Amino acid sequence: MNSLFRSLLLAALLTTGSAALAQAPVSQPTESKDAAYTRTITERADKIVAKLEGLKPAKTTKVRDIIVGQYRALNEIHEGRKTKLAALKAQNPDEATKKAATEKIEAETTAALDKLHPKFLAQLGRQLSAAQVDQVKDGLTYGVLPITVRAYNDMLPTLTEAQKAQILAWLTEAREKAMDAGTSEQKHAWFGKYKGKINNYLSAAGIDMKQAGKDWDARRQRAAADAQGQ
């Protein structure tokens, strides 16, 4: 009996221990900040690459890695700027010193971005066609350029070819600036700045932009109503 009792007790203890182990939550390793950032920018780059027309499968990973490298390099520049500005603020210098130091930091940031920009485009150019490089640029800037071009053409159907060319030129310049911005808000801000320039240009040509906007809204509302009525 004693031997049987000991066997039953041992079995019960083993069963209870196994159940406890099964029920115990398994701790998951915490993703580091750098790993999370790498995952995020890799996912962004994958989405851009997936939309490239005519990209050979053998180049997919290489192009993705170039874009990831650009995201990381831009982040380092912009984070470096933020760190320098925070350190300057902590020093609490007089206004003249603060202004001079801030201008120096901004100039250094601009110089670093200006150096990085052509390097990135050269890397892309060795792997992609000019049209594909433009698609990457649009991917990095949320497709604002083609969306805005379509909007102007739709809102102002009587634009001349010269006006269309000027609009495209300015939006292309805005895209080059926006590519290097540190946040989505800053990217959109660059396009906003150039759209203001475009609107002033069209107004100077005699186009009532405010009325054109109202007319465009009315046309779109009629089109939506017609589509619902079908």
From TrEMBL:
Residues 1-22 form the signal peptide. Keywords: Signal. InterPro entries: DUF3826. It comes from the Bacteria. Pfam families: DUF3826 (PF12875). This is DUF3826 domain-containing protein. The lineage of its organism: Bacteria, Pseudomonadati, Bacteroidota, Cytophagia, Cytophagales.
